[in-house]
Protein backbone atom coordinates (compact mmCIF):
# COMPACT_ATOMS: atom_id res chain seq x y z
CA UNK A 1 0.00 0.00 0.00
CA UNK A 2 2.96 2.34 0.66
CA UNK A 3 3.77 2.34 -3.05
CA UNK A 4 0.27 3.63 -3.81
CA UNK A 5 0.58 6.38 -1.19
CA UNK A 6 3.90 7.44 -2.75
CA UNK A 7 2.40 7.41 -6.27
CA UNK A 8 -0.50 9.55 -5.12
CA UNK A 9 1.91 12.11 -3.68
CA UNK A 10 3.80 12.24 -6.98
CA UNK A 11 0.60 12.76 -8.97
CA UNK A 12 -0.38 15.62 -6.67
CA UNK A 13 3.01 17.23 -7.32
CA UNK A 14 2.76 17.24 -11.11
CA UNK A 15 1.70 20.88 -11.19
CA UNK A 16 4.45 21.97 -8.78
CA UNK A 17 8.22 22.30 -8.83
CA UNK A 18 8.75 19.91 -5.90
CA UNK A 19 11.79 17.65 -5.96
CA UNK A 20 10.71 14.07 -6.55
CA UNK A 21 11.39 11.67 -3.69
CA UNK A 22 11.42 7.87 -3.74
CA UNK A 23 9.32 5.24 -1.95
CA UNK A 24 12.36 4.43 0.19
CA UNK A 25 12.70 8.08 1.22
CA UNK A 26 9.01 8.27 2.12
CA UNK A 27 9.34 5.12 4.24
CA UNK A 28 12.39 6.59 6.00
CA UNK A 29 10.48 9.80 6.79
CA UNK A 30 7.52 7.88 8.18
CA UNK A 31 9.67 5.57 10.31
CA UNK A 32 11.60 8.53 11.68
CA UNK A 33 8.36 10.30 12.58
CA UNK A 34 7.07 7.21 14.39
CA UNK A 35 10.33 6.82 16.33
CA UNK A 36 10.18 10.46 17.42
CA UNK A 37 6.54 10.08 18.48
CA UNK A 38 7.28 6.96 20.52
CA UNK A 39 10.21 8.68 22.20
CA UNK A 40 8.01 11.64 23.18
CA UNK A 41 5.15 9.42 24.39
CA UNK A 42 6.82 6.54 26.27
CA UNK A 43 3.85 5.99 28.59
CA UNK A 44 1.27 5.57 25.84
CA UNK A 45 0.38 1.99 25.01
CA UNK A 46 -1.43 2.09 21.69
CA UNK A 47 -2.89 -0.55 19.41
CA UNK A 48 -2.12 1.36 16.22
CA UNK A 49 -1.02 4.74 14.92
CA UNK A 50 -2.50 6.83 12.13
CA UNK A 51 0.04 8.76 10.04
CA UNK A 52 -0.93 11.80 7.98
CA UNK A 53 1.94 12.91 5.74
CA UNK A 54 1.59 16.51 4.53
CA UNK A 55 3.62 18.25 1.81
CA UNK A 56 3.61 22.06 1.76
CA UNK A 57 4.07 24.48 -1.13
CA UNK A 58 7.63 25.27 -0.01
CA UNK A 59 8.41 21.50 -0.18
CA UNK A 60 8.41 21.04 3.62
CA UNK A 61 6.95 17.76 4.85
CA UNK A 62 5.23 17.12 8.17
CA UNK A 63 3.88 13.83 9.49
CA UNK A 64 1.02 14.06 11.99
CA UNK A 65 0.55 11.00 14.20
CA UNK A 66 -2.38 9.99 16.37
CA UNK A 67 -3.31 6.77 18.21
CA UNK A 68 -6.26 4.87 16.73
CA UNK A 69 -8.04 1.58 17.46
CA UNK A 70 -6.63 -1.49 15.77
CA UNK A 71 -8.43 -2.48 12.55
CA UNK A 72 -8.66 -6.18 11.57
CA UNK A 73 -6.22 -7.03 8.80
CA UNK A 74 -9.04 -8.46 6.65
CA UNK A 75 -10.76 -5.06 6.76
CA UNK A 76 -7.59 -3.32 5.58
CA UNK A 77 -6.66 -5.88 2.90
CA UNK A 78 -9.76 -7.89 1.92
CA UNK A 79 -9.40 -10.86 -0.40
CA UNK A 80 -12.84 -10.17 -1.88
CA UNK A 81 -15.73 -7.72 -1.63
CA UNK A 82 -18.18 -10.58 -1.97
CA UNK A 83 -21.65 -10.02 -3.39
CA UNK A 84 -24.37 -7.57 -2.37
CA UNK A 85 -26.45 -10.45 -0.98
CA UNK A 86 -23.72 -11.47 1.49
CA UNK A 87 -24.29 -10.57 5.16
CA UNK A 88 -22.52 -7.30 6.03
CA UNK A 89 -19.24 -7.84 7.93
CA UNK A 90 -19.91 -4.81 10.15
CA UNK A 91 -22.66 -2.20 10.73
CA UNK A 92 -23.55 -0.62 7.40
CA UNK A 93 -23.14 3.05 6.60
CA UNK A 94 -25.88 5.29 5.22
CA UNK A 95 -24.90 6.74 1.84
CA UNK A 96 -26.53 9.83 0.37
CA UNK A 97 -26.28 11.68 -2.95
CA UNK A 98 -25.20 15.32 -3.04
CA UNK A 99 -27.95 17.74 -4.02
CA UNK A 100 -25.95 19.47 -6.76
CA UNK A 101 -23.11 18.67 -9.20
CA UNK A 102 -19.48 19.46 -8.39
CA UNK A 103 -17.17 20.90 -11.04
CA UNK A 104 -14.12 18.76 -11.79
CA UNK A 105 -10.90 20.46 -10.68
CA UNK A 106 -7.49 19.76 -9.18
CA UNK A 107 -9.22 19.78 -5.80
CA UNK A 108 -11.44 16.85 -6.78
CA UNK A 109 -8.71 14.93 -8.62
CA UNK A 110 -5.74 15.30 -6.26
CA UNK A 111 -5.36 14.91 -2.52
CA UNK A 112 -5.05 18.44 -1.10
CA UNK A 113 -5.99 20.30 2.07
CA UNK A 114 -8.73 22.16 0.15
CA UNK A 115 -11.96 20.42 1.15
CA UNK A 116 -14.66 23.01 0.47
CA UNK A 117 -16.64 20.90 -2.00
CA UNK A 118 -16.56 17.89 0.33
CA UNK A 119 -17.42 19.88 3.46
CA UNK A 120 -20.32 21.54 1.63
CA UNK A 121 -21.66 18.19 0.43
CA UNK A 122 -21.45 16.71 3.92
CA UNK A 123 -23.21 19.71 5.46
CA UNK A 124 -25.96 19.59 2.83
CA UNK A 125 -26.50 15.89 3.56
CA UNK A 126 -26.78 16.62 7.27
CA UNK A 127 -23.57 14.80 8.23
CA UNK A 128 -22.34 16.55 11.34
CA UNK A 129 -19.35 14.45 12.40
CA UNK A 130 -16.70 12.12 10.98
CA UNK A 131 -17.71 9.67 13.71
CA UNK A 132 -21.10 9.11 12.06
CA UNK A 133 -21.42 6.11 9.77
CA UNK A 134 -22.61 8.31 6.93
CA UNK A 135 -21.18 9.27 3.55
CA UNK A 136 -22.25 11.49 0.66
CA UNK A 137 -21.54 10.86 -3.02
CA UNK A 138 -20.35 13.68 -5.27
CA UNK A 139 -21.17 13.77 -8.98
CA UNK A 140 -19.97 15.91 -11.88
CA UNK A 141 -22.07 18.11 -14.22
CA UNK A 142 -22.53 15.12 -16.56
CA UNK A 143 -24.22 13.21 -13.75
CA UNK A 144 -21.33 10.79 -13.22
CA UNK A 145 -20.44 9.75 -9.66
CA UNK A 146 -16.93 10.96 -8.78
CA UNK A 147 -16.33 9.55 -5.29
CA UNK A 148 -17.40 10.00 -1.69
CA UNK A 149 -16.50 12.90 0.57
CA UNK A 150 -14.01 10.75 2.52
CA UNK A 151 -14.00 7.46 0.62
CA UNK A 152 -13.50 5.65 -2.64
CA UNK A 153 -16.71 3.92 -3.72
CA UNK A 154 -17.66 0.66 -5.44
CA UNK A 155 -21.01 -0.26 -7.02
CA UNK A 156 -22.34 -3.68 -8.08
CA UNK A 157 -22.98 -3.60 -11.82
CA UNK A 158 -23.45 -6.58 -14.16
CA UNK A 159 -22.06 -9.10 -11.70
CA UNK A 160 -18.95 -7.21 -10.59
CA UNK A 161 -17.87 -4.27 -8.46
CA UNK A 162 -17.27 -1.05 -10.39
CA UNK A 163 -15.49 2.08 -9.17
CA UNK A 164 -16.07 5.40 -10.98
CA UNK A 165 -13.53 5.82 -13.77
CA UNK A 166 -10.75 8.37 -13.37
CA UNK A 167 -12.17 10.52 -16.20
CA UNK A 168 -15.20 11.25 -13.99
CA UNK A 169 -12.98 13.58 -11.98
CA UNK A 170 -12.74 11.94 -8.57
CA UNK A 171 -9.62 11.30 -6.54
CA UNK A 172 -7.54 8.25 -7.31
CA UNK A 173 -7.24 7.10 -3.71
CA UNK A 174 -4.68 4.58 -2.48
CA UNK A 175 -7.27 1.96 -1.55
CA UNK A 176 -8.93 2.44 -4.94
CA UNK A 177 -5.59 1.81 -6.67
CA UNK A 178 -5.04 -1.28 -4.54
CA UNK A 179 -8.54 -2.62 -5.25
CA UNK A 180 -7.99 -2.26 -8.99
CA UNK A 181 -4.53 -3.83 -8.74
CA UNK A 182 -5.97 -6.85 -6.91
CA UNK A 183 -8.74 -7.11 -9.53
CA UNK A 184 -11.46 -6.78 -6.89
CA UNK A 185 -13.18 -4.20 -9.10
CA UNK A 186 -13.03 -2.54 -12.50
CA UNK A 187 -13.44 1.07 -13.64
CA UNK A 188 -16.60 2.32 -15.29
CA UNK A 189 -19.09 5.15 -15.52
CA UNK A 190 -21.59 5.24 -12.66
CA UNK A 191 -24.49 7.64 -13.16
CA UNK A 192 -26.29 9.24 -10.24
CA UNK A 193 -29.60 8.64 -12.01
CA UNK A 194 -29.00 4.86 -11.89
CA UNK A 195 -28.64 4.62 -8.10
CA UNK A 196 -31.34 2.55 -6.40
CA UNK A 197 -32.64 3.13 -2.90
CA UNK A 198 -31.21 0.44 -0.61
CA UNK A 199 -28.50 -0.80 -2.98
CA UNK A 200 -25.27 -1.99 -1.40
CA UNK A 201 -22.18 0.15 -1.92
CA UNK A 202 -18.67 -0.64 -0.71
CA UNK A 203 -16.55 2.21 0.66
CA UNK A 204 -12.84 2.41 1.43
CA UNK A 205 -10.14 4.73 2.66
CA UNK A 206 -6.68 4.35 4.12
CA UNK A 207 -7.80 5.09 7.69
CA UNK A 208 -10.76 2.73 8.02
CA UNK A 209 -10.08 0.10 5.36
CA UNK A 210 -13.09 -1.37 3.54
CA UNK A 211 -16.65 -1.18 4.84
CA UNK A 212 -20.14 -1.55 3.44
CA UNK A 213 -23.04 0.85 3.16
CA UNK A 214 -26.46 1.26 1.58
CA UNK A 215 -27.64 4.07 -0.62
CA UNK A 216 -30.46 6.14 0.87
CA UNK A 217 -32.39 8.15 -1.71
CA UNK A 218 -34.08 10.34 0.92
CA UNK A 219 -31.60 11.66 3.54
CA UNK A 220 -34.36 13.56 5.37
CA UNK A 221 -36.29 10.34 5.89
CA UNK A 222 -33.16 8.60 7.17
CA UNK A 223 -32.45 11.40 9.65
CA UNK A 224 -36.01 11.16 10.96
CA UNK A 225 -35.61 7.41 11.42
CA UNK A 226 -32.34 7.95 13.33
CA UNK A 227 -34.13 10.18 15.84
CA UNK A 228 -36.82 7.59 16.50
CA UNK A 229 -40.40 8.27 17.58
Automatic annotation (TrEMBL):
Any Pfam family matching the protein: Aminotran_4
Gene3D superfamilies: D-amino Acid Aminotransferase, subunit A, domain 2
Any one GO molecular function term: catalytic activity
SUPFAM superfamilies in alphabetical order: D-aminoacid aminotransferase-like PLP-dependent enzymes
InterPro entries (UniProt xref): Aminotrans_IV, Aminotransferase-like, BCAT-like_C
Highest taxon of the lineage: Eukaryota
Protein name: Aminodeoxychorismate lyase
Amino acid sequence: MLEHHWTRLQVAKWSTSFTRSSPAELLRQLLTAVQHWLAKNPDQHVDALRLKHKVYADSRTVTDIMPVPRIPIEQLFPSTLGRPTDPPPSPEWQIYLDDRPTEVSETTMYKTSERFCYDRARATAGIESYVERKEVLLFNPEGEIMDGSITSVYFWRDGQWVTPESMSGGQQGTTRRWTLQKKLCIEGKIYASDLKDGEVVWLSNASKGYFRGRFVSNPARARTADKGP
